[in-house]
């Protein structure tokens, strides 16, 4: 190391050689005050952004100027001093990491809830690799576990995204136990890859992808769409591994007039409550029948019933409701009512 470099780092070695001289001469260990002074300088060096390697070399170079003594005593003193210096340096790094994590979490909360001034939010976003003046889309995954930023699955997905796409403007995070990926709106391949990797890493978790929206408020808009899509998937018993909010727009439309939809469910499906066991089994039968494309054999397989048993249930539904599931003219009314029942959580909740 050059003399110039040593002089530049001199402030971080203040008193180092004097401490070594006294320790080597007397054969004593470093005092508490001496160790604390090394820790303080290590913390100062880290806070100043000094790289560690030159600092360690500077200490070793300075140790060579210490008056002759036993090798063991010199090494023992150097070891104590450098260890204390490293303790302070690493403590500063840990504090910096915690501060960075806190700042990142605050930014994520503000970004996903839209609570901050949009101009200031855009400025803060640059620090985390996002340019909020562009359009962004958000993918949200729900798995069997609650995930946070330190969860092995989160680290696995982060590594996979970096390995595949490098340092693109991608942000992977977590919120309320969900995995969240934010990407530029014109990079749908990123979200598709995230969804595939998340499905595997979470042992079958479901991912919903919101539409791309421009501007600082675009992220929260897309995030809310993805959350709503996950909720719809649960209500509608959708088992696809990947859901696109754009493909589910019909459901919010159907429930926009909630009272009208509730009236349709009550008038069309309400009579099924007279059946033994209530309306639930017959509603599940209709749902499976429509999901199977009105193919009785496939619907029976999904319900673990015989075709004969399924046919009996469909006939029972016809008698109770006056609507024949096999009749194309009746089918639309029944299917819309079934969708409404799922969305409104009927018959579990009264309408």
From TrEMBL:
Highest rank taxon of the organism: Bacteria
Pfam families recorded: GGDEF_2, HTH_30
Domain CdaR GGDEF-like, first and last residues per copy: 114-232
Span of domain PucR C-terminal helix-turn-helix: 282-338
Family the entry assigns: Belongs to the CdaR family.
Name listed for the protein in its UniProt record: Helix-turn-helix domain-containing protein
């Amino acid at each position: 190391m050059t003399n110039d470099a040593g002089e530049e780092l001199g402030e971080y070695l203040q008193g180092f050689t004097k401490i070594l001289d006294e320790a080597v001469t007397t054969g004593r260990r470093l005092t508490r005050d001496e160790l604390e002074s090394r820790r303080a300088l290590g913390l100062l060096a880290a806070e100043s952004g000094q790289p560690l390697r030159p600092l360690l070399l500077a200490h070793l170079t300075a140790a060579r100027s210490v008056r002759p003594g036993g090798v063991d005593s010199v090494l023992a003193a150097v070891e104590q001093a450098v260890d204390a210096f490293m303790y302070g340096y690493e403590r500063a790094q840990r504090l910096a990491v915690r501060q960075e994590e806190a700042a990142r979490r605050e930014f994520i909360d503000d970004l996903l809830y839209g609570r901050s001034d949009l101009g200031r939010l855009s400025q803060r976003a640059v620090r985390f690799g996002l340019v909020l003046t562009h359009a962004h889309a958000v993918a949200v995954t729900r798995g069997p576990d609650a995930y946070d930023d330190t969860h092995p699955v989160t680290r696995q997905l982060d590594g996979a995204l970096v390995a595949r796409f490098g340092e693109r403007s991608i942000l992977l995070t977590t919120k309320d136990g969900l995995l969240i990926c934010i990407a530029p709106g014109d990079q749908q391949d990123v979200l598709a890859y995230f969804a595939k990797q998340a499905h595997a890493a979470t042992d079958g978790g479901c991912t919903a992808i919101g539409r791309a929206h421009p501007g600082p408020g675009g992220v929260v808009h897309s995030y809310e769409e993805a959350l709503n899509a996950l909720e719809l998937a649960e209500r509608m018993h959708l088992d696809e591994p990947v859901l696109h909010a754009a493909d589910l727009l019909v459901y919010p439309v159907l429930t926009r007039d909630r009272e009208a939809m509730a009236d349709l469910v009550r008038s069309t499906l309400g009579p099924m409550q007279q059946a033994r066991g209530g309306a639930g089994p017959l509603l599940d039968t209709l749902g499976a029948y429509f999901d199977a494309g009105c193919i009785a054999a496939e619907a029976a397989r999904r319900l673990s019933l015989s075709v004969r048993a399924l046919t009996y249930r469909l006939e029972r539904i016809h008698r109770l409701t006056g609507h024949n599931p096999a009749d194309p003219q009746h089918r639309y009314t029944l299917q819309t009512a079934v969708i409404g029942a799922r969305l409104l959580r009927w018959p579990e909740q009264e309408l």
